[in-house]
Design a protein that fits this description.
81% helix; 3 helices; mainly alpha; 64 residues
Amino acid sequence: MAISISVVLLLFILAVIFVRNGGLKITHALVCLLLGFYLASTSMAPTINSGLTATADIVSSLRP
């Protein structure tokens, strides 16, 4: 568990740096993809999933 959290934290920091630089290249996209896979295997996955579901429900209920 400690190793996967360290990897998730490292990949998160790299993804933030890549996004802030403004140029998302193929290698950057792979880092973001790996971050997603590692996040899916952590204990935070159900919380992230429910948060995204709630956000999608709110957005879908808005009328322009």
